[in-house]
Write a structure and sequence with these properties.
single chain; about 120 residues; alpha+beta; five-stranded antiparallel beta sheet; 4 helices
Amino acid sequence: MDLVLTVEEPAGADELRDLHRALSGEAELRGRVRLRQRPPAPGTLGPVVEAVEVALAPGGALTVLTGAVLVWLRHRRGTVKVKVTRGKDTVEVTAQRIRELDPVAVRDLTTEIVTALERKN
């Protein structure tokens, strides 16, 4: 199962690099996380980061990924929004929404996201 994570601009590329580092630090995800980049526009330097891609094996890795994304979002300032896409299904989560949740609500949201992403694929 492959997932694509995107972050809305204006700080999207920087946030994606940070999210990539956070996810790569999870033992269950190590070696499965990479940045999706496109060539730079003419007259600019370096590739443009578009997304974080995660190749998940069957098992509990989707729960680990979802939990790691929620923890990462909880520490973001402003209105950072992450879109997690698997096939035709997309789930959006904002930092503001996560910061307001207690631990039980975060657990419930993790279950809800995992269920939504596993449902049709």
